[in-house]
Inverse folding.
């Protein structure tokens, strides 16, 4: 069977539905609705039309030669998901799930968010479709992503800061699950990544696989060949699976996911789940995760709120074990250097999340040599990160230090 | 093969009391559990503190986070069962999210729990569909396994929960997470009736029960009334003496006491 045909609920030994029984009816309902929608030309046409007239798809590709000079001369091509409406790839999944929520007759959507990209996209779709929207966001993240909190509130969403646990993305998911258990009758949980219980990992992947499908054709048209390698950052893993998926059954294309190493994988302060974790159950699925010997989830760290998550989608765990995709850690410092480099060489300010994939591409270019073509998912734009970046580079007063 | 919990339920309708292990500290949690039994609780449900308890409301979350912050380690769950079963004869179930059991080793956890005198497990985030390894281990070590049933569950899923549970089926009385509610949902009685219709012999009803009157109401149709947050709140507010008083008040709701 082609790797692309894996539908869940299991990816090898990963995936499944480790959730309270109270949620099973909703997951079954969602699975059934999604299976119907997948085969329904009117659903697909509606989504495609939204992408054309609202998202701004297809997103373009941009070759970045001045950036590539720093990558051993390899050709580097960016898939510009940062140019989508709302500024990241997240809108692809949100529009798909919001359409499903409407079909299910749900009047309220809830979402978790880390960096705020998924929360903004969810609030946007809620505004577009006239749905009530509640976004759970770790209190720590509401501070470091204050601009996105303001965007969500302007769009009419209620943002609830989560003060339990580590007060980051992991705990925002816990709160969203608790809300869903309580309000499942009228509420759809618009999960923002390829983690969680079935059908989320395969459904969210399907909504994002358009990234790789477009990019595969675009790179072929530009270069006459498939890329040597495809690179993306990995937190929960949605943008990475989105760009990987079309290439899963092209064995000549190497796939690389770049995780957040925070202050370094030799310190406790990282979010390198696939590099440093081991299999367990978190947020409804069996997958790699960061945990102690007792199976308690360990708090992650990354300068990037969107990658600051101690779990990862089950399909990535499966691809890692198969050896089909490779996962490497990128430190905060490496990511911030890449963020500044792309800004200064190409005039493109990427999100800090995205910068992990760009830093990885710099490594890959040096390893693969000048003949290599590296496709990078430029998954989000960096506007939301200006405060963090300004502090990091010491440029708040206009003088770089 | 015999079920400790079913043997207890055969004696009469039961008050089932929940407390987390390690809150406010290990020793006091053991004392509080013993005090519950001495105050009329028939079956103990000891919560294993976990970092991501998605089924729990704020009261239990706060208690278990304190236990974790104080350094709770998984072997203490087994040790608590050992110490409590040495002192009282009530069956002791552990209520645990499943990842700690997976990491300990499902077979080893079952073996150690059985050796400590434990009755079995309540697994809030493990549905029977994902439970093959735990079902095998619980058979091997003669342990009870309590799966959940929800108002939203189909009859087919209720039948599966009934067939694969041993001890009792945990009927989630309302759509929500743990925590005291003024009224126990009418959905509870309907759910118990549906469980009976698919063959349930023993049904425990939980989530939202906090008074003796609610215990009496629930035991008019269920076999066990499960109380958690109200006990945890008492223990937090007034220590072992207070939680014993609360348990006595709840026990007045049992038919034998009226």
């Amino acid at each position: 069977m082609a790797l692309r045909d894996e539908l869940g609920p299991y990816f090898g030994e990963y995936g499944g539905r480790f959730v309270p029984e109270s949620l099973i009816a909703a997951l079954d309902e969602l699975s059934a609705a999604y299976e119907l929608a997948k085969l329904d030309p009117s659903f697909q046409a509606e989504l495609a039309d939204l992408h054309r007239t609202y998202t701004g798809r297809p997103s373009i590709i941009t070759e970045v030669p001045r950036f590539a000079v720093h990558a051993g001369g390899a050709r580097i091509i960016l898939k510009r998901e940062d140019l989508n409406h709302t500024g990241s790839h997240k809108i692809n999944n949100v529009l798909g799930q919001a359409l499903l929520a409407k079909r299910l007759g749900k009047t309220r959507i809830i979402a978790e968010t880390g960096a705020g990209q998924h929360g903004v996209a969810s609030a946007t779709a809620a505004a577009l479709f006239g749905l009530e929207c509640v976004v759970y966001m770790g209190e720590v993240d509401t501070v470091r992503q204050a601009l996105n909190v303001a965007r969500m509130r302007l769009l009419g969403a209620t943002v609830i800061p989560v003060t339990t646990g580590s007060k980051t993305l992991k705990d925002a998911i816990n709160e969203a699950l608790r809300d869903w258990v309580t309000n499942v009758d009228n509420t759809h949980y618009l999960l923002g990544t390829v983690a969680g219980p079935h059908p989320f990992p395969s459904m969210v992947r399907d909504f994002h696989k358009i990234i790789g499908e477009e990019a595969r054709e675009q790179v072929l048209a530009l270069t006459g060949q498939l890329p040597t390698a495809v690179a993306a950052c990995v937190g929960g893993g949605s943008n990475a699976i989105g760009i990987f998926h079309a290439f899963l059954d092209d064995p000549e294309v190497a796939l690389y996911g770049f995780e957040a190493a925070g202050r370094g994988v030799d310190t406790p302060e990282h979010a390198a789940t696939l590099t440093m974790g081991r299999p367990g159950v978190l947020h409804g699925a069996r997958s790699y995760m960061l945990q102690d010997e007792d199976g308690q989830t360990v708090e992650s760290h990354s300068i990037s709120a969107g990658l600051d998550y101690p779990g990862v989608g089950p399909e990535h765990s499966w691809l890692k074990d198969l050896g089909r995709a490779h996962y490497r850690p990128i430190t905060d410092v490496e990511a911030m250097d890449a963020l500044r480099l792309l800004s200064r060489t190409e005039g493109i300010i990427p999100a800090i999340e995205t910068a992990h994939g760009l830093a990885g591409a710099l490594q890959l270019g040096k390893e693969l040599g000048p003949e290599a073509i590296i496709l990078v998912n430029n998954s989000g734009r960096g506007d939301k990160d200006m405060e963090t970046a300004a502090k990091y580079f010491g440029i708040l007063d206009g003088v770089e230090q | 093969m015999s079920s400790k919990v079913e043997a207890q339920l055969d004696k009469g309708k039961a008050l089932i009391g929940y407390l987390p292990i390690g809150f406010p500290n290990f020793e006091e949690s053991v004392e509080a559990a013993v005090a519950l039994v001495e105050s009329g609780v028939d079956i103990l449900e000891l919560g294993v503190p976990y970092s991501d308890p998605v089924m729990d409301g704020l009261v239990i979350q706060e208690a278990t986070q304190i236990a974790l912050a104080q350094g709770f380690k998984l072997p203490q769950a087994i040790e608590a069962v050992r110490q409590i079963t040495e002192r009282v004869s009530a069956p002791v179930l552990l209520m645990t999210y499943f990842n700690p059991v997976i990491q300990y080793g499902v077979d080893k956890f079952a073996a150690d729990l059985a050796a400590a005198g434990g009755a079995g497990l309540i697994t809030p985030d493990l549905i029977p569909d994902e439970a093959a390894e735990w079902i095998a281990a619980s058979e091997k070590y003669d342990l009870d396994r309590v799966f959940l049933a929800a108002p939203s569950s189909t009859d087919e899923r209720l039948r599966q929960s009934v067939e694969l549970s041993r001890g009792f089926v945990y009927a989630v009385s309302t759509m929500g997470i743990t925590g005291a509610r003024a009224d126990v949902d009418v959905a509870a009685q309907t759910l118990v009736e549906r469980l009976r219709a698919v063959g349930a012999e023993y049904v425990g009803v939980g989530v939202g029960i906090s008074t003796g009157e609610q215990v009496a109401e629930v035991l008019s149709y269920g076999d066990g009334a499960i109380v958690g947050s109200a006990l945890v709140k008492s223990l937090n507010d007034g220590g072992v003496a207070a939680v014993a008083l609360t348990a006595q008040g709840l026990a007045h709701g049992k038919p034998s006491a009226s």
